[in-house]
Amino acid sequence: MKVIKIDKKNWAEGLKRLADKFPLFGPVQKDEFHIFKELHKDELPDLSLQNTRLSPKSVVYPQSETLFEYTLDEKQADHHILKEIDKDYLPRAVVGIRPCDAKAFLLVKRNFDTPEYKDPYWIKAYQAVTLIGYACNTPCSNCFCTTAGCGPFHEEGLDVLLVDAADHYLAQIMSEKGEKFITAAGWDTSAGANDLREQVQTLKQAAETKITARVSTDKLKDKDTTALFEASFWEDVAFACINCGTCTYACPTCWCFDIQDETFGSSGIRIRNWDSCMYPLFTHHGSGHNPRDMKMQRVRQRFMHKLKYYVDKYANGIQCVGCGRCIRLCPVNIDIRKVCDLMNSFES
Amino acid sequence: MFAYIEKIKEISNRLLKESTVDLIIGFRKGTVPMMNEPCFAKTPEAVDGLVWDSNCGINLANYLANRKEKIGIVSKGCDSRNIVTHIIENKIKRDQVVIIGVPCKGMIDRHKIEAMFDTEIEAVTEADGRLNIKGDGVDTAIDKKDVLQQNCTICTHRNPVIYDELAADLVEEQTDVDKYEDIRRIEDMTPEEKWEYFEDLLSTCIRCYACRNACPLCYCPTCFVDESQPQWVGKSQNPTDIRTFHFLRAYHCAGRCTDCGACERACPMGIKVRILTKKLEKDCLELFDWESGLTLEKRPPLDTYRPDDPDDFIK
Amino acid sequence: MGIEPGRLHFSWISSAESVKFVDVVKETVEAVKALGPNNNFIKTTAKVA
Q1: How close B308 comes to chain C (CA, Å)?
Q2: Which domain holds residue A64?
Q3: pTM of the full structure
Q4: Helix ranges restricted to H, chain A
Q5: Would you state the pLDDT for residue A192?
Q6: Domain membership flag for residue A261
């Protein structure tokens, strides 16, 4: 693994060179917070942020995505046939994604890219991106990534990890895609040296010690699922919840969607939209029956899925990277760290 | 604040002990700065965890609709007005609730405070109308009145309008506030400017429905946006659908909204959704001399008819 | 909310007031025609990602 040094003076110029070759996405300030968006020419990613308000999952997996179009006009030869829509899956780069958000793609991949089922839209979009991570020198106080299988300098899922080191960036190149990115930017890749790798390690340790928030997940796997499901603490946990979709929409690892047809006169489209297990409609059956009719059941589902079912199914830790967004954005202060600890320490 | 908390605990314990109520709805201390979590208390231990400070902006009336138990509820001015609205709209019975009134001097807007500092805020404590803010390299005090939620700065009903117990002496009401400066500015716009203004206002909406769900008025068993037969509104991020949701929701709150600010406070994207409901609140005041949630004796203007209702718009 | 004042008309017409009905309809149609089409609330597929 090579580490190179990019002088900040050469940063803008390199990105400009890249922007001529393929689209760049990055964080930019919008009102009082940061969002991920496609950068227009000469626009630089704003790396002064802690993190974007919402996760960058939408770069690969948009909140609303048109999949097919159709016509109901019987005079047309192809009426009532779903036709795929042309999409742009040309290479693009996401500059300034935090390591937690990049790792989250790997957790989501478990759903969209399995031996049995392959979601072509997600897979093609994911393959098209080069992820240029930006290590967290100053993590937020409610980040708990180090105990959620991730970390402020976590490398999994990234092609390049950028580390801010005063007047320069240290770029740790982790894949062929990453190598190509750096080369295309024209940054000198020959300067890789051992002492740079040590510098990264020092900064990494400094960042990790700053993270004080943590969760305990070690006993989740051994818990009896039914007992945990029926635990009495859920009523207390769920009380404040208003069943909005903020936590799930902000979450980099939430992947659920709903498919809708929308018809305009005689033509129409099939769209897929993010959905949320917090909504009663999420499980509303055609018969009118709803197996998760009560708020407590829906709140329980969210935490059980992330912290128990996923753990049991994949032997891969929890389905959470510890980015802390749901904690920061929850309008009523429901805190996944607290719930995780309740679950982990639960005795039936 | 400390005196408030002790009094709330004392009242709560008494109500529970005497079985006047089955549970108390209040706040417990949050896990992040400037946030508290709504909670219920049925035991003395749970009562012990109740708190009160300037981070109790969530409207607790939202937790009352359709409950069957006897409930003691901690209630600031706006909460009490929404309890009145609930009673008028048959969502709860008056004799089912014991209202623990909490005179209020406004709730703080955490996003406003966060935006004032470059660094993350790690702790906020308050005393005598001052907030002490601590963070990496920050240790400073600011006036609470400068960082109130916008609706609190123009609030003229800080004291509960209806209560059975009081946690503190009543506070002086604000008079002489200009409530509708922002609305007048929009009213003065041309139709095109208005359209653009709302397009921009709602451009970051992610349709999480936090505004709707935080609102005590939004208790419909099935919201019109969730109806599928017929489907009134599309489900995607289409701007027309997003706008339809916000406009229609606001109209559903006409003559009912107390401008408690729960919607705006809940929005994860910082959208000033109150602009929509506030215009209708202003119209109700000007056309019908009506402020919602002040009395159990009168029906709201939109569900009753009076011969002197304004009708200038009918040609 | 971005709809011109002249686009919305309210009138109180008794079933016996046929002449008033005709007048109001004519007036309304003319006023709306003068404003031209308002496409603001028309949904177009192009706006979905």
Answers
A1: 16
A2: 2-210
A3: 0.94
A4: 11-21, 99-112, 120-128, 176-185, 194-210, 225-229, 233-238, 246-250, 295-304, 310-314, 325-329, 336-344
A5: 58
A6: yes
Burial of B77 by CB count in 10 Å (0-12 exposed, 13-18 middle, 19+ buried)? buried
Q: Mind listing the pLDDT tens digit for each residue in B153-202?
A: 999 999 999 999 999 999 999 999 999 999 999 999 999 999 999 999 99
Q: CB contact, 8 Å: C47 with chain B? A: yes
CA angle A66, A70, A72 (to 5 degrees): 145
In chain B, DSSP finds a helix count (H) and a strand count (E) of 11, 9
Q: Smallest Cα–Cα separation from B56: which of B149, B122, B131, B140?
A: B149
User: Residue A261's beta-bridge partner residues?
Assistant: A270
CA-nearest residue to B56 within chain A is: A332
The shortest C-alpha distance from B312 to chain C (Å) reads: 10
pLDDT digits (tens, 9 = 90+) for A214-271: 999 999 999 999 999 999 999 999 999 999 999 999 999 999 999 999 988 899 999 9
Whether residue A233 is found in the same domain as residue A326: yes
- Mark yes or no for CB contact B234/C42 under 8 Å: no
Percentage helix, strand, coil for chain B under 3-state DSSP, each rounded to 5: 35, 15, 45
**Which of A67, A264, A266, A270 is the best residue to mutate to test the C interface, defined by the most C CB atoms within 10 Å of its own CB?**
A264
Q: Which residues of C touch B314 (CB under 8 A)?
A: 10-12
Task: Assess B239–A contact: CB distance below 8 Å, yes or no.
Answer: no
Which are the contacts of B133, defined by CB distance < 8 A and separation ≥ 6?
A: B113, B117, B121, B123, B124, B139, B140, B141, B142
Domain with C16, as residue range(s), is: 11-36
Q: Are residues A84 and A120 in the same domain?
A: yes
- Choose the closest CB to C49 out of A62, A262, A267: A62
Distance CA A124, CA A88 (A): 9
Q: CB of B113 within 8 A of CB of B133?
A: yes
Which helix or strand (DSSP H or E) is residue B46 part of? helix B44-48
Domain for residue A219, yes or no? no
Which residues of chain A are within 8 Å of residue B233 when distances are taken between CB atoms?
Answer: none
Chain B from 61 to 90: CB within 8 A of any A CB: 62-63
What is the rounded CA–CA span in Å between residue B303 and residue B255? 9
Residue B158: what residue type? R
| DSSP β-bridge partners for residue A99 | none
Q: Quick one: A164 exposed, middle or buried, by C-beta within 10 A (0-12, 13-18, 19+)?
A: middle
Q: Does a structural domain hold residue C25?
A: yes
ipTM: 0.94
Kindly give the interhelix angle for A120-128 and A99-112, rounded to the nearest 10 degrees. Answer: 150
Sheet holding A24-30, edge to edge: A2-7, A168-173, A160-165, A129-134, A92-97, A24-30, A33-38
Q: Residues 6 or more apart from C39 whose CB is under 8 A from it?
A: none
- Residues on chain C touching B236 (C-beta within 8 angstroms): 48
